[in-house]
Fold:
Amino acid sequence: MGIPERREREKERRRVDIIDAAEKVFFSKGIGQATMHDVAEAAELSKGTLYLYFKNKEDLYLAIILRGMAILQAGFEAAVKSTEKGIDKVAAIGRAYFDFCDNHPDYVNAMLHYESRDAAADPSGYASECNAQGKDITATCARAVQSGIEDGSIRGDVDPVRTALTLWGLSTGVVQIIATKGEMIKELHGIDPQDLTETFFDLINRALNPDGPAGRGGTR
Amino acid sequence: MGIPERREREKERRRVDIIDAAEKVFFSKGIGQATMHDVAEAAELSKGTLYLYFKNKEDLYLAIILRGMAILQAGFEAAVKSTEKGIDKVAAIGRAYFDFCDNHPDYVNAMLHYESRDAAADPSGYASECNAQGKDITATCARAVQSGIEDGSIRGDVDPVRTALTLWGLSTGVVQIIATKGEMIKELHGIDPQDLTETFFDLINRALNPDGPAGRGGTR
DNA sequence: TATAATTAGTGACTAGGGGTCATTAAAGAG
DNA sequence: CTCTTTAATGACCCCTAGTCACTAATTATA
Structure:
């Protein structure tokens, strides 16, 4: 009997439709201004129905963020495959991150917005999926660093996971400063956001280069 | 006639008292959970009075953040004075930042929380003061980089302001990943937050070292 | 000192949004 | 055709940010 299966599909379809509508609303009005009523209207559903599919507003928001993370992860996977040398993989990931920011600024804003909230709060619903996705992304980065260490294009005295996590933090920091202060920086110092990303790449390139100065200790 | 002056002092005093009360409430309950009613109660005032001193909840929150920024700035100033060589000044600033995080986690959380919101929104009230303070902090960092370039302890082919801004972003990124994901990282990868800060310092040290490999282009 | 004017403070009230639930409509089973 | 199950609804509740007509206190004036 295929009825339950069809129902399941329809339910999933509706869920997707709601996320689509929510995306439009949240992205255009901003998460703070957008109301569940707005989303319901955009989805041509009643407000109560939204709560049949999502635990609450945050859960719905996290569903959107999960989409962003999936796109990002896909970009990272592609970046890793695009080159051979580990250091280039790392660089490609970095570029992919900044490309993502250029191409999907709304997702980036959303992600930054929720990056700053306590993650562990409630690991039910989409929160746990986001955590899992984040773990995958970290793993992809760590593998890239690892491969660089193995092929000698990244200095051997760093720990791949630590480095990947740190790089992840660093990139996010740059992305964030550009997203939130980019305008101000431009006005105040006449510096283009692009300059900051280039500065970033330059610094990281140096930092990971195996031909650098004898590290003052290295990462453990 | 000293009456207006005394009134001004009393007003300022009350303002400080309100911020004190708000700090307690916001820090203990979290910004999202804390209500203006809670703050009013803690300050032993009516809710309406809060709005005589602060434009709205966010403004009050920004007043708290401004305090945090002032502490941070003071720490940076001290750090810069604590050593001679520019590269050491930069490192000292970095350490000061992480010390600040250890000693004032509540301020850090508050600052991260508002770091992610659009800064330019409304430059009235405390928002503009926060912007100004941020500018000062950036300037302090830029001076440290500059002095390092001048005394040769930092490679000469970087732009001080760009580098300072980038470093600022990087540090914040690390701080943020530790603040929001520290627990998870520890569970998941068995990595101590402290390790990430050390990895960070190691990377930056390398990146700024003048004896590094011929940069692949440098920062412009 | 009595009175007017100014300033500080109040708390009931409004507006609006998140989330719920008794009820209705639709679909499938027997 | 009737009964059961599932999907959807929207009126409703509750909470909180923010307001404002009013009261109290302080200072200036007569």
